[in-house]
Amino acid sequence: MKPKHLVLMVLLGGLVSLKPVAALPVAVLVAIGICDFQRSRQFDARSWRRYFLGNGLLTWALAPLNLLVDALCRRNLRIYRLADLPAGHREEIAYVIDAFRQNLPLVEQLAPQMTSKRRGMCFARWYGKPLDGSLAMPAFQRDFRYVQTIGCSIFNRRQRTSVHYGPLRLTLRCLYNLDPASGDDVFIEVAGRRHYWRDDPLFIFDDTLVHQSVNDSDRLRYCIFLDVLRPSPFPAVLCLLVRCVRTTVVSARRVFYANWDMIR
After folding, report:
1. Strand 193-196 and strand 129-130: pairing?
2. Would 195 be classed as within a structural domain?
3. Residue 188 and residue 209: Cα distance in Å, rounded?
4. String of DSSP letters for 68-126
5. Does residue 67 belong to any structural domain of this protein?
6. Using an 8 Å Cβ cutoff, are 137 and 99 in contact?
7. By the number of CB atoms within 10 A of the CB, which of 44, 78, 85, 256 ranks highest?
8. Alpha helices in 133-214 (DSSP H)
9. Which residues does residue 130 pair with via DSSP β-bridges, in sequence order?
C-alpha cells in the first residue's frame, strides 16, 4: 500500500469514529487540506505527516483562507521569475533591492549580533507597517502598494531551516542573496526543486509550498526577505486582508518565526 493511501485510511478512520454532527465539518476541513497539500506534489509518508500532524498544521488550518485567496488571484505559478510579475511589482522589488545594495554597511552591522545565534531576522516593515531598527532606512518610508514585508534573514555558518510550510498565500516570498556563494552548499529547495544562489541571487516562490533553506558554507548568508502582494484583479481586497492579518496577529512574528532570533 502506498504511503499516501495509508495516511488517507488513518484520516478516514478518524472521521468514522466521530459523531455525524462533528464528522461533516472535520471531513470538509480534511478535504480542503488534501486539496491544499497536493500542491507541493510531495506524496511520501513523511510529507503527509509533516502537513497534517507536524509543522504544516498552521498551513492546514489556514487552507480555507488560502484557497479563497487563490480564487481572487491570477494563476499560481508556484515558482516565479521577476518577468512573471506585473510592472508595478517589479519596480518595487527592484527599488528595495537597490536600497539594500546602497546601504550594505547597515546590513553588515548586524553581523556582531549573530555571534551566538543560528538564524536571525531583522524587519524594516511587517505586513505594511514600518518598524524601528537597524534597517529603518528612509527609502523604506515610501508608500508601497505591493511590497508588504521588508527584512533581512541571516544564517550563521553551517545552518539550515527545517523542511516546512509557510502559513499564508496572500503574498509571494521574494529572496535576494546579497553575497552569493560560488559553491553548491548554499541553496533553497522548494517542492523538490533546488535553487542555488550562485546561479541567480533572486528567487520568488509561493511560501506555502514545502521548502528548506540551507547554508552549509563557512560564512554568513544574507538574504533580503520580502513578502510581495500576489498579482490579482482585486488588489484592494488583498490589501484589506493583509491589514486584517496585521491587526489580528499583532505579535505574529514570534509565532511565524519561532525558530529565529529577532535582531535589531
Report:
1. unpaired
2. yes
3. 12
4. HHHHHSSPP-SEE-GGGS-HHHHHHHHHHHHHHHHTHHHHHTTGGGGTT-SEEEEEEEE
5. no
6. yes
7. 85
8. none
9. 125
Query: In the structure grid, which three cell numbers stand for residue 192, read together?
Result: 523538490
The three three-digit cell numbers of residue 65, written as one number: 483562507
pLDDT at 26: 76
Residue numbers of the domain that contains 112? 79-262
3-class state of residue 55 by DSSP: coil
Which stretches of the chain score pLDDT less than 70? 1-23, 249-258
pTM, full prediction: 0.88
Tracing cell 518598524 back to the chain, one arrives at 131
Identify the pLDDT of residue 183: 85
Cell 502537513 belongs to 51
Of the candidates 151, 153, 264, the one whose C-alpha atom is nearest the C-alpha of residue 214 is 153
* Nearest partner of 62 among 262, 249, 250, 254, judged by Cα: 249
Task: Specify the residue for cell string 529603518.
Answer: 136
Shared domain for 126 and 251, answered yes or no, is yes
**pLDDT number for residue 245:** 82
DSSP 258: T
Predicted confidence at residue 21, as pLDDT, reads 56
- Tell me the C-alpha distance between 56 and 257, whole Å: 14
Distance (Å, rounded) from C-alpha 174 to C-alpha 80?
Answer: 9
What is the per-residue pLDDT for 4?
A: 47
Q: What angle do CA 209, 210, 213 make, to 5 degrees?
A: 115
113 backbone dihedrals φ, ψ, rounded to 5° = -75, -10
Q: Beta partners for 168?
A: none
Q: What is the distance of C-alpha 180 from the center of its chain?
A: 20
